[in-house]
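User: When convenient, might I ask for sequence and structure tokens for a protein?

AI:
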Amino acid sequence: MQLKRVPYGNKLLNCFEHMIVSAASMWDRDEPLHFACSWGFEFKSREEEGGKSVGERLYNGSYPDRDLAYHIERYFGIRLNTHRPRNTGELADLVRRELGRNQPTGVEMDSLWCPFHPVYRKQSLPHNFLITAFDETGGKFDCIDSLFSDRTESIDFFHLEQASVICYTFDRLDPFIPPHWSGIARDAASCMLDKASGENAFDAMRRFAGEVSEGLDVQAELEQYPWLQTSPLFLQLHTIAVNRYKFSETLACLHRTSGVEELKELSGRLYECGDLWQTAEHLILKSYYMKNRAASLEKVGSRILRLADAEEELARRLYELGAQAQADEACGAHEACEMHKVHGAHGLPGGLQ
């Protein structure tokens, strides 16, 4: 039982996004809109998360309120259904049913038990992939995974039984009307500027910069993990940089569809912010090998402060741009309504008929 699917290639996608986009590609849903919730930043204080490392208190901030299902419906027109099979028999039944509908099944499991993951049996991380075929005789499934763009992999019942597997199925929602560009722009900027918790994302960046400058214990952040790049600090810093590239791609897409030139400029500026976050990540990693880390980390903190200012200015402009477009649209709708009231009974003036 097999579903013919080609692994989806986009290096910006994390494993969860790759799973969603690969499924959505069956219905030609617009990938860049999936990045509409990728721009973010969160950093918990020492008081909120006592005893946790800097990396454990840092979050890239994508998907406000972590409401993945809502955002997937809004930007893809796809309903995400969550299932928790109690055993491999229930998983097999679910996969069999979905393949019968000519659809894949999404899986989330612990990378500790995922045989084709680089940290297999070394580190516990959530990992997602798509099941596209079921070998009932051999008791294994074929998978499309973000780690491999040129081939499929397989996983057997034994490994799935070791992990608490979550499954996802997908329903196409029709009719699907993507949100207007102005709403996407305004919502994204609002999430970054919102001070409902007492500070916005840029204030949190400045606090993070302060802790880096004050003497981040890079050694303690990294040494308990099998690879430096799999530590929470570097996973989050890497994702923060990549998410700037992702939302830059969304802005570029909105520019192409709307023709609003300033969106193209803002897209370029945010892409540059992604480059600067990547530089900050590399400089922190480099400091790990330096004898005098303090001076280097102080410079990194200063860079992040400048980044916070640059991104905040960008967010305010993006919010103004979206809000103005929405106001203009509302004004146009109001004028059309008034025109209808005046001329509705008698038709339009001769020159407009």
Summary: The longest strand covers residues 126-135. Residues 339-343, 345-353 have pLDDT under 50 and may be disordered.
